[in-house]
Amino acid sequence: MTKPFRADYHDPTGYLSMEYDRRIGYFSMSADHLHDHYELYYLLSGERIYFIKDRSYRVRAGDLVFVDRNAVHKTLDSGRPDHDRLVLYINPELFADLAVPPELAEGLKEPFGWDVPILRLPSPASEAVERMVGDMVNEMIHPQAGSSWLLRHRTVELLLFAYRSRHLGMVRSADTEPVLHPKTQAVVRYLNDNYRQALTLPEVAEAFRISPHYLSRLFKQTTGFTFSDYLNLLRVKEAQRLLRESDDSITDIAWRSGFSNFSHFGKMFKRTVQLSPRAYRQQYRMRS
User: Fold this and answer.
1) How far is CA 149 from CA 95, 156, 159, 288, in A?
2) What is the pLDDT along the chain (288 residues), one digit of tens a residue?
3) β-bridge partners, 86
């Protein structure tokens, strides 16, 4: 790798987007990440740390990473510079649009719910995935007649290959290299279970018998999130669910999600989702 390079694809249906990035040097995501679509991440070269839900994983070149809808996640540098990756953002409507039978669509979505959502295939299956991804990147960079049609079908082909090959390369919890500090992991799980309560950094630090300064620094180093940003993301995620699944007022949803200040809720929601809570609910109901 010599120069940074980026290519994007946005399907006209709105059901599929792709990003190819070649990055030089050290890079960690700055934006807090949470979205309603599935994310399929393939690392072509380099090494990354990937935080998903409550764990961090060391991702190697050739790994496929499956990020479920509305899962809190972030990528961090692993201490090694330079990487290139392809990310697919897949709306579930894509499968119906391509007439994928419902039972097969459920199989294609299965890896996104794995306990360890990583597929690490041996040769020659890994080379087959590498060729598929290479063809997709080439199609993004040099679009031709029918590129959109081809990329949609290549996406399903890649998911199908991964599903069929799952017995070859599913990563077990016992096989993953510990990346997240045990104390951080315990705090993350505590926040995941208790975000609806009024929580502060000093109170949580005291509960885990560490100093607030040390917890703040350790949390950021090992997850990529600040303590407050992670807590806000969990609350926004819950607010999204309640907006989709209930008719409760937006004010009630803010309180039920753990926000004690309605103005702060609106600001955090829009920063994360790029829509106001009202617009998010309206958009979801129009799509449904």
Assistant:
1) 13, 11, 16, 24
2) 579 999 999 999 999 999 999 999 988 776 666 788 999 999 999 999 999 988 889 999 999 999 999 999 989 888 899 999 999 999 999 999 999 999 999 999 999 999 999 999 999 999 999 999 999 999 999 999 999 999 999 999 999 999 999 999 988 875 666 566 788 889 999 999 999 999 999 999 999 999 999 999 999 988 889 999 999 999 999 999 999 999 999 999 999 999 999 999 999 999 998 899 999 999 988 877
3) 20, 42
How many helices and strands in the chain, by DSSP H and E?
A: 12, 9
* Burial (Cβ within 10 Å: 0-12, 13-18, ≥19) of residue 135: middle
DSSP H helices in 91-200: 93-97, 102-109, 125-141, 147-164, 166-169, 182-194
pTM of the model: 0.87
112 residue type, one letter = F
Tokens of 215: 């917890």
**Domains plus CATH for the chain?**
5-168 (2.60.120.280), 182-287 (1.10.10.60)
Query: What three-state secondary structure class fits 90?
Result: strand
Dihedral sign from CA coordinates of 208, 210, 212, 217: negative
Q: Output Rg (C-alpha) for the chain, integer angstroms.
A: 20
Tokens standing for residue 174: 């016992």
State the residue for tokens 């617009």. 279
Structure tokens at 243: 């907006």
